[in-house]
Amino acid sequence: RKEYVDLYVNYMFNKSVQKPFEDFMQGFLRGCPARIWKMFFPEELQVLLQGRTTFDWHLLEKNVIYGQYKKLDQTIRNFWTVFHKLPEEKKRMFLAFLTGSDRITGYDLQCFKFFIEDPQVENPDESHPYASTCRLILFLPR
Questions:
Q1: Which CATH superfamily is domain 57-139 in?
Q2: Per-residue confidence at 103, pLDDT binned at 50, 70, 90?
């Protein structure tokens, strides 16, 4: 029985997917040659491909660049006060709103920067925050 189970497991996890996996690997390596990936440690490659899963939210705040705002403006202080009180799940949702993903890929967290700008709308009380995900800008009405 052990031999049967070993053969069955080998078939299911190796033999049955061997051809599709080889096809995938060939296509993947055509676009991303293996020599490029060898320069990374496994942990670095995982962060590059999957993104960071833990964040220093205070470092994120420190790295923000403000447009038409100053760090000590009341709107900015209110924003960060509320942000830091959010549960982790909501902070990740904000990150997804800002960047399109709840992870930061390909960056050292200290190098990740985003912008908070005043959209300078006529009536800010009737405007909602919105984001430009490709330019990493949060438009935050006063």
A1: Hect, E3 ligase catalytic domain (3.30.2410.10)
A2: confident
